[in-house]
Amino acid sequence: MTNDLMPADACLVAQRLACATCPTSVVVLAVRDAGVRLTCCGTPMQQGTPITCSAVAPSAPRGSRMRAGHEYADSNSGLTLRCIREGSGRVAADGRPVVPRFRAARVLPRPERWR
Ligand SMILES: [Zn+2]
What we know:
Layout: E1 6-7, E2 16-18, E3 25-30, E4 38-40, E5 43-44, E6 46-47, E7 71-74, E8 79-85, E9 92-93, E10 96-97, E11 99-100, H1 101-104
Antiparallel strand pairs: 1-6, 2-3, 2-6, 3-8, 4-5, 4-9, 7-8, 7-11, 9-10
Zinc ion binds next to loops.
């Protein structure tokens, strides 16, 4: 482990987190519970690995579980992430796999609408 890689002990907005095992990288867009523990591939995610603009994005491995550019959420911790680099793992918040935000945010029609 290099010095610029350190375990993320608090989850903060605008924080960039990367998996220590696979190429998956995310940015925190919102979080209510800063103590939420983010993992990928079963290991704690690491912070402090800036990706330079000139870095070529790796092609998504087969079986990629998260899509670059897509948002993911965990309702229990109020967490919203944007995936910025795809990997073979799936990010989890306190052990709960994050879900695509468009699915998590979908709401049912209000009953009043049908009166
Ligand atoms: Zn991973």
